[in-house]
Amino acid sequence: MYAIPDNNFNGKIISSIILCVLMGLLYLFPVRYQWIKLFIIISLIILTISNSSNYYLSKKAFYWTISYIILGFFLIFHGILSGNPAPMSYFAVYVLWPFLYMLLSGCINFSNFKIFLKISKLCLVINIIIGLLAFFKFNLLIEPQGQFMFYKASIRPGFPFICIESPNIVDFFLVYFFLITLMFMRVKEMKIVDWLILLGGILYIFATSRRILFFCFAILFMILLFFIKYVPRNERRILLKSFKIIGFGLVLILLFTLMWLKSEGIFKLEDLGVFFKETGEASDGPRVLQREALLTGWMDSPVLGHGSGVDASVSRSDIPGTYELSYHAKLFEGGLFGFVWYIVQFIILFIWLIKVIIYDKQLRLYSIATVTMLTIFLVSNATNPYINAFDYIWFIYISFFIINIHDRKSRINHCQEISTEC
Q1: What pLDDT was estimated at residue 269?
Q2: What contacts 2, CB < 8 A, 6 or more positions away?
Q3: Sheet (strand 151-154) strand order
Q4: Cα gap 420→363, rounded to integer Å
Q5: CA-to-CA distance for 359 and 135, rounded, in angstroms?
Q6: φ and ψ of 147, to 5 deg
Q7: pLDDT tens digits, one per residue of 50-78
Q8: pTM for the whole structure
Q9: 228-231 long-range contacts, CB within 8 A, separation 24+
Q10: Helix (H) or strand (E) holding 147
Q11: Integer Cα distance of 17 and 11 in angstroms
Q12: Is the dihedral of CA 363, 368, 369, 375 positive or negative?
């Protein structure tokens, strides 16, 4: 552990309260109350910067964000010069929000980060409870168009129940896989409430009927196995045993559920093909056409792309330049130049997180959890542009919470070594 001098105890308490309110709003009320969130973020930044001993922004966070913003300006100005209909439509996404969240990341020290973890866990539990209540309400009362708090009913082809739909699902799965990564890495310390969160989250995922969420478990297990040598030696065998038990249990639950549904006439085995089919499904058909249109458009300007704010021949939004296929869209907008720039930035971010895993024992587990969350975020972003939303792009900056804390600690240790030598 390390200590950072703090001469303003009251300011620290106020900052912690503001952080709790902000996290609650971001987790539980995505795509709502954005002006309130902006006001709170700016207030927290000003309050923390005014007490300079509490604020620290690493060069990595600064340079990475500036690079991200420069790429955004390139796409915007390219769109303006190309005469695109709405080149400024993503100015906030490419410039303002990254800059704001960069400044916010400097407000997070290790004590604040522990508060962040507790609020994340509390909001996750609230999301799971409300989501499951909504799921049971819709199905028990047969409400295919029902609504319960911030969840609404939805029908998906091949899924035998009325599923839940909400912007909160994104917050759920990112926080859920972040926290259960931490739980698995310290499996001996897991309490009853942690096992309940794990099982409740699995039921929640089933209730959403989101195919990508089932794939996220595979990502989680692969990352944990890749970094298993950093798990405390006495917990590795328990972790592997837990994987086997959980995997076997999930398969059994799935099989018994399908058999029961089939016996009740609610479900047919043919429905599995409909549920997992990627093409031919109504919601995915337009994405296939969109992909082809974006790739065809990219070939017209393969090096520099077309800039922001212009549609390919197929679009599903009234705002020009808005697509579901984020990475195809980035190739269409920025060409090979912009696309490679974009990808390299995230490769560098992963390298920084891996260095924290290797060199910082205190932050190692948190960094592994962040790698899991960031990987799932970027995989999900491929077909849903979460990175273009104010309420979701901030998940990238959790990486800089970790990196800032690590660099701050390294800087303090370096200064102490210099003073000792003197």
Answers
A1: 52
A2: 110, 409, 412, 413
A3: 147-148, 151-154, 163-165
A4: 25
A5: 44
A6: -145, 140
A7: 876 778 889 999 999 999 999 999 999 99
A8: 0.85
A9: 230/357, 230/364, 230/365, 230/368, 231/185
A10: strand 147-148
A11: 10
A12: positive
* Residues in Cβ contact with 153 at an 8 Å cutoff, skipping those fewer than 6 apart: 134, 138, 143, 144, 145, 146, 147, 162, 163, 164, 165
Q: Residue 165, SS3?
A: strand
Q: DSSP letters of 237-270?
A: HHHHHHHHHHHHHHHHHHHHHHHHHHHTTS--TH
As a whole number, mean pLDDT of residues 360-382 equals 92
Report the C-alpha gap between 127 and 146 in whole angstroms.
Answer: 18
Nearest to 27, CA basis, from 203, 130, 170, 152: 170
C-alpha radius of gyration, the chain, whole number: 23
DSSP assignment letter at 125: H
Token pair, residue 369, equals 């959890």
Q: Judging by beta carbons within 10 Å of its beta carbon (0-12, 13-18, 19+), is residue 234 exposed, middle or buried?
A: exposed
pLDDT by residue (tens digit) across 286-304? 777 888 888 888 998 899 9
Half-sphere exposure of 101 (CA within 13 A, CB side): 27
Q: Which amino acid type is present at position 203? A: L
Kindly state the tokens that stand for 410.
């390294």
| The residue count for the chain | 422
Maximal C-alpha separation, the chain: 80
Contact, 108 vs 404, CB < 8 A? yes
The closest alpha carbon to 87, from 77, 74, 95, belongs to 77
Among 322, 304, 302, 303, smallest CA distance to 312 is for 322
- Which residue's entry shows tokens 């739980």? 183
> Which pair of tokens denotes residue 195?
């096992």
Which residues on adjacent β-strands are paired with residue 154?
163
Nearest to 294 by CA among 310, 282, 280, 283: 310
Q: Is the pLDDT of residue 341 over 90?
A: yes
Residue 2, pLDDT score: 40
Residue 5 pLDDT > 50, yes or no? Answer: no
At 406, list the tokens.
């690590």
Q: Which residue carries 């890749």 as its tokens?
A: 226
